[in-house]
Write a structure and sequence with these properties.
The structure holds 2 protein chains of 2 kinds. Helix content of chain A is 0%, strand content 49%. By secondary structure, chain A is an all-beta fold. In chain B, strands 2, 4, 5, 9, 10 and 11 form a 6-stranded mixed sheet that branches. In chain B, strands 1-3-8-7-6 form a 5-stranded antiparallel sheet, with no helix packed on it.
């Protein structure tokens, strides 16, 4: 079955440490996205990619980095520059450039700073 | 003013009740609209698209009012399993890029 897989489900980061969140999809979607959700709040866009080897900053890109070397994969690195990284991170994908399609989300990674 | 606004709730309703949520948006160029459902500590899942003519899926009805720039979701005969947070999503095309904006969600608690 097609879908998006995020791993790990839970991640603990020490202060000053970089961590990478994995996102893989087999839906043949061109576009992939990373969102952050804080308790009681909506989703905020971190980075997005509409095509392999290209990505753009979203609304809250500072302290994060991404790569898109393969169509299926869009990993997110939370760097030590991100001062408040504890949040629920959601990866999504969609058909690129099609306004009438919604997103498919992965099951999320819950990141906690210890 | 937020681009997409929702009443955060919670809406506490008894089983069998009818409940409606509204979502207002500020970008008049918005083209597509969706309702997502998010269970506690889970990812959002697409509930239904919202069309200008209105659309129904079982107990759920979605409406779009472009003139007043809001969408609505009506749930009839509420079930305990409907308890969740409902997110509205508004999409506009911005220089070839899909720009999705999520509302903060409305929490529904259906009580026995």
């Amino acid at each position: 079955d097609g879908g998006i897989t995020q791993s790990p489900k839970y991640l603990f980061r020490k202060e000053g440490q970089n961590v990478t969140l994995s996102c893989e999809q087999n839906l043949n979607h061109d576009a992939m996205y990373w969102y952050r959700q804080d308790p009681g709040q909506g989703l905020r866009l971190i980075y997005y990619s509409q095509i392999v080897n290209d990505f753009q900053k979203g609304d809250i890109a500072e302290g994060y980095s991404v790569s898109r070397e393969k169509k299926e994969s869009f990993p997110l690195t939370v760097t030590s520059a991100q001062k408040n990284p504890t949040a629920f991170y959601l990866c999504a994908s969609s058909v690129s450039g099609q306004v009438n399609y919604g997103y498919t989300f992965g099951s999320g990674t819950r990141l906690t700073v210890v | 003013r937020k681009e997409v606004e929702q009443d955060p709730g919670p809406f506490n309703v008894p089983e069998g009740a009818t409940v409606a949520f509204n979502c207002t948006y500020s970008n008049s160029a918005s083209q597509s609209f969706f309702w997502y459902r998010q269970d506690c500590r889970k990812e959002p899942k697409l509930l239904m698209s919202v069309y200008s003519s209105g659309n129904e899926d079982g107990r759920f009805t979605a409406q779009l009012n472009r003139a007043s720039q809001y969408i609505s979701l009506l749930i009839r005969d509420s079930k305990l399993s409907d308890s969740a947070t409902y997110l509205c999503v508004v999409i506009a095309m911005d220089m070839g890029r899909r720009a999705l904006t999520f509302g903060s969600g409305t929490r529904l608690q259906v009580q026995p």
